[in-house]
Write a sequence for this structure.
């Protein structure tokens, strides 16, 4: 999903993986809590490296090493 203020949600009390904004080009990650951007217009699209950012959840997976 495109990182636009109107697509963000308030994350207070949210359970599970929290959404973040990520840059497809450099991998930069930013908070995606709507409350952090209270002074930004609803139609604003967040960009990085000249491209629109995406709203995603990040998941870390631990896998055993086979010897």
């Amino acid at each position: 999903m495109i990182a636009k203020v109107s697509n963000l949600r308030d994350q207070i009390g949210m359970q599970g993986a929290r959404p973040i904004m990520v840059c497809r080009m450099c991998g930069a990650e930013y908070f995606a809590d709507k409350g952090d951007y209270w002074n930004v217009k609803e139609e604003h699209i967040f960009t990085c490296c000249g491209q629109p950012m995406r709203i995603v959840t990040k998941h870390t997976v631990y896998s055993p090493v086979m010897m």
About this structure: Residues 5-57 form one domain.
